[in-house]
């Protein structure tokens, strides 16, 4: 080790890193010693001086400004302020094998929840068998009678799921939430990767990282797979509430990357139970709508009557089978945090399998003994409203003041169905660059994953949004609550890789696990290239 | 004995400023069931817009229209001939009180009828009012109890269209002690459901020949499930049982499922809405009318 490197280690951006004693650190095992899958990246980052890294960090920030990626926050004080979602250049790395198991677990969960929704809006076997209490479902404000006795085209409800995971101090992944309504964040995953490549291309190219940029095409294929009967080339659109929505950028981003129109409610209308889009060439029939609009606002004829954001009559067109909506209306009862308690039972009931992913123990305040426990142990619990998202209305017991605790005790007592409580989970920590301190410090992270279910197709994005709680000691990672994010690298199998190249305009070849597939005027051929051996199973 | 009615629903809206785009839905068609047959339906609107239909969550036909032609007045009219049969009333004593309760407490029965047993904005009754409500007594049959409840709600409230509006809840009605047929019905629903009796909101028309309260506009009443019999209509506004003079359009959990007209319009100014109905027997079988009114007072 030369002198310059030695100096960087002590004074550099990672030199003063303090490993958190009571939490799992995803990067470091001991001071200066990282987990094997971080070894190569760590070596690269060690070479950066403070000054170099600050410059890179600014460069990455500029990438977001240039891409126009901002969001706004709904709160009393800072209404409509546009912000950049802070991005951290140190990637979160998930080894291939670890991911493979996660992916299995996520699919299992999403498939079971889809069957659950089919059943609840159909024959309700699970309620007849009393596996899930009927009152719990019927009392959810997101349980829609408009969906009863109706099966959407393709039988899919949660086309897009955003399963939130955390890694606990026991090294295991736990599911925190199943987001089955309009999970957001995918645009950050894709633009984080762009920023990463723009800023640290020389580092990035050395690693075999699974790609994420195929997501928009996968989403489009998912939409097309559930088009109404008899439609071969469906017209798909993204329906946004408009520019004032906090996720408007994402709506525009998805429409652009899928190559489909971005529309607002006023651009669509319903005539004779078909949906049409107003275009300069006259009306155009719309077949599949990815709507980023809550159920309440979707159709003033069926739901909130004063909504001007929706499309009057679209629910009738939907139930006639003339248009499909993603996600299906009424999925919200299934990601209700009180229903969450039953997801392991739901998986066993429909799939006759043991759940692969863990659930966090959840106290339902509606139950008398749970309610008592919550009141007595509030300081050691996280209290969450069952039907909110975005980290709003949450109390973290050990961080709360006496007044806040008292306030929540009243809230919970007044509406027991609305609240659940969970033990405070020890979210794992990850080295994160802290501006101002200009060094890496451990911060809590979670992982939002993105899963697509279509007719006869399933897809889990190999990656996701690693959200970082930037505030020291904070456990809330939501972007609306001052969180940042990281690029998430899901590694490919050791020794395996995929590359694609176009030799000339006539011939394309793809190499995967040493197998080369060539497509050209001479037809298609598959063969093993050179002396490379086939991927070694299990070796890592 | 059959009675034929001509049922007409008419609405007239005027707007201060031109409407640029509009979507209207109507739930005003009389429905078909064991006791009524609907014929000769005709729909007219002043815009000449083509109407289209779809069944709502409970299977009742909704008529919709969409227009982008500017307008400042809008008229809609539905005409139908309804042939109404004599209705049968429940007979006491088919099931014992215990057998009735067994059915009402049955889990599967609850699942099948949960939409008519839940409490929502319109039907929830807060603890503070419960003590003053009429509840089913242990030895009382469901039908016996509901007839008393019909009288109770009728006597508790005073008919008054001033203080309430389309969003008034049972709690507000209990506070005001006044209201219209919608309010009487929601209160009846709320109390019946507290007794675990499935009960649904009905919207429809009243024979105007009887000069009953609420016959000038669309009327509302309740249908409750009597074990061993089925659904029976109760009209707490008039303290009557629904019989051949009651022409049903739709039912649902509460008013929100049955509102006769819904619309989304793009305009800047104010609007005025008026609507009315006319319901008349086509040939007046006077004897039938008498026996009908008598039977509905049998208790």
Automatic annotation (TrEMBL), chain A:
InterPro entries documented for this protein: ATP-dep_Glu-Cys_Ligase-2 (IPR051680), CP_ATPgrasp_2 (IPR025841), UCP005522 (IPR016450)
Pfam families: CP_ATPgrasp_2
Domain of life of the source: Bacteria
Family annotation (Gene3D superfamilies): 3.30.1490.270, 3.40.50.11290
Start and end residues of each Circularly permuted ATP-grasp type domain: 91-469
Coiled-coil features, chain-numbered ranges: none
Entries under PANTHER family matching the protein: BLR5612 PROTEIN, SLL1039 PROTEIN
The name this protein goes by in its record: Circularly permuted type 2 ATP-grasp protein
Organism name: Rufibacter hautae
From TrEMBL, chain B:
Pfam families, per database record: Bact_transglu_N, Transglut_core
Disordered: region residues: 269-299
Polar residues bias spans: 284-299
Superkingdom of origin: Bacteria
Domain Transglutaminase-like: 173-238
Protein name, as recorded: Transglutaminase family protein
């Amino acid at each position: 080790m030369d002198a310059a490197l030695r100096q960087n280690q002590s004074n550099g951006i990672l030199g003063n890193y303090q490993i958190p004693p009571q939490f799992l650190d995803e990067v470091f095992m001991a001071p200066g010693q990282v987990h094997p899958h971080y070894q190569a990246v760590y070596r690269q980052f060690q070479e950066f001086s403070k000054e170099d890294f600050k410059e890179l960090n600014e460069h990455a920030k500029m990438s977001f400004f240039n891409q126009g990626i901002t969001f706004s926050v709904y709160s009393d004080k800072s209404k409509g302020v546009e912000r950049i979602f802070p991005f951290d250049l140190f990637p979160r790395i998930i080894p291939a094998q670890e991911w493979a198991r996660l992916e299995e677990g996520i699919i299992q969960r999403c498939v079971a929840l889809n069957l659950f929704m089919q059943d609840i809006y159909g024959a309700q076997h699970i309620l007849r068998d009393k596996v899930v209490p009927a009152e719990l479902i019927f009392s959810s404000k997101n349980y829609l009678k408009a969906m009863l006795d109706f099966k959407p085209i393709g039988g899919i409800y949660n086309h897009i799921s955003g399963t939130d995971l955390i890694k606990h101090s026991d090294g295991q992944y736990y599911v925190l939430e199943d987001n089955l309504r309009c999970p957001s964040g995918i645009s950050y995953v894709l633009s984080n990767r762009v920023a990463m490549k723009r800023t640290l291309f020389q580092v990035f190219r050395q690693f075999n990282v699974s790609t994420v940029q195929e997501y928009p095409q996968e989403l489009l294929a998912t939409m097309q797979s559930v088009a109404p009967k008899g439609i071969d080339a469906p017209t798909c659109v993204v329906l946004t509430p408009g520019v004032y929505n906090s996720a408007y950028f994402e709506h525009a981003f998805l429409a652009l990357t899928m190559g489909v129109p971005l529309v607002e409610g006023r651009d669509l209308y319903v005539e004779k139970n078909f949906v049409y889009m107003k275009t300069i060439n006259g009306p155009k029939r719309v077949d599949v709508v990815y709507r980023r609009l809550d159920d309440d606002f979707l159709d003033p004829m069926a739901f909130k009557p004063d909504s001007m954001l929706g499309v009057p009559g679209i629910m009738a067109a939907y139930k006639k089978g003339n248009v499909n909506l993603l996600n299906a209306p009424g999925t919200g009862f299934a990601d209700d945090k009180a229903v969450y308690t039953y997801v392991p039972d739901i998986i066993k009931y429909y799939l006759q399998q043991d759940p692969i992913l863990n659930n966090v123990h959840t106290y339902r305040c509606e139950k008398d003994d749970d309610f008592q426990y919550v009141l007595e142990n509030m300081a050691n619990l996280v209290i969450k409203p069952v039907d909110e998202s975005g980290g709003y209305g949450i109390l973290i017991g050990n961080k709360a003041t006496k007044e806040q605790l008292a306030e929540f005790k009243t809230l919970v007592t007044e509406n027991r169905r609305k609240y659940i409580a969970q033990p405070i989970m020890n979210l794992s920590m990850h080295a994160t660059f802290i501006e101002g301190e200009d060094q890496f410090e451990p911060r809590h992270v979670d992982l939002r994953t993105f899963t697509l279910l279509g007719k006869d197709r399933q897809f889990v994005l190999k990656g996701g949004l690693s959200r970082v709680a930037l505030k020291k000691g904070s456990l809330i990672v939501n972007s609306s609550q001052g969180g940042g994010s990281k690029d998430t690298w899901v590694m490919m199998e050791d020794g395996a890789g995929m590359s694609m190249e176009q030799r000339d305009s006539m011939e394309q070849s793809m190499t995967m696990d040493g197998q080369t597939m060539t497509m050209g005027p001479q037809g298609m051929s598959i063969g093993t290239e050179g002396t490379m051996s086939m991927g070694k199973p299990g070796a890592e | 004995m059959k009675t034929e009615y001509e049922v007409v629903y008419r609405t007239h809206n005027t707007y201060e400023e031109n409407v640029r785009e509009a979507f209207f839905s109507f739930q005003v068609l009389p429905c078909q069931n064991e006791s009524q047959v609907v014929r000769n339906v005709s729909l007219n609107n002043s815009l000449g817009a083509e109407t289209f239909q779809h069944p709502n969550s409970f299977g009742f036909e909704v008529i919709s229209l969409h227009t982008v032609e500017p307008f400042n007045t809008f008229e809609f009219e539905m005409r139908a001939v309804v042939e109404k049969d004599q209705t049968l009333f429940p007979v006491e004593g088919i099931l014992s009180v215990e057998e009735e309760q067994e059915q009402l407490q049955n889990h599967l029965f609850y699942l099948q009828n949960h939409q008519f047993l839940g409490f929502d904005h319109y039907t929830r009754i807060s603890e503070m009012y419960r003590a003053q409500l009429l509840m089913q007594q242990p030895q009382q049959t469901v039908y016996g109890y509901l007839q008393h409840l019909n009288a109770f709600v009728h006597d508790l409230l005073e008919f008054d269209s001033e203080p309430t509006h389309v969003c008034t809840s049972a709690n507000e009605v209990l506070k005001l002690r006044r209201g219209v047929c919608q309010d009487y019905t929601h209160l009846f629903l709320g109390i019946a459901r507290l007794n675990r009796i499935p009960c649904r909101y009905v919207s429809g028309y009243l024979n105007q020949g009887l000069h009953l309260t609420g016959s000038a506009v669309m009327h509302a009443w309740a249908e409750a499930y009597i074990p061993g019999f089925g659904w029976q209509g109760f009209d707490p506004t008039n303290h009557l049982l629904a019989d051949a003079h009651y022409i049903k359009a739709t039912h649902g959990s509460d008013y929100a499922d049955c509102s006769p007209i819904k619309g989304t319009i793009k305009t800047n100014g104010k609007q005025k809405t008026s609507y009315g109905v006319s319901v008349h027997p086509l040939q007046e079988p006077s004897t039938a009318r008498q026996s009908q009114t008598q039977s509905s007072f049998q208790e």
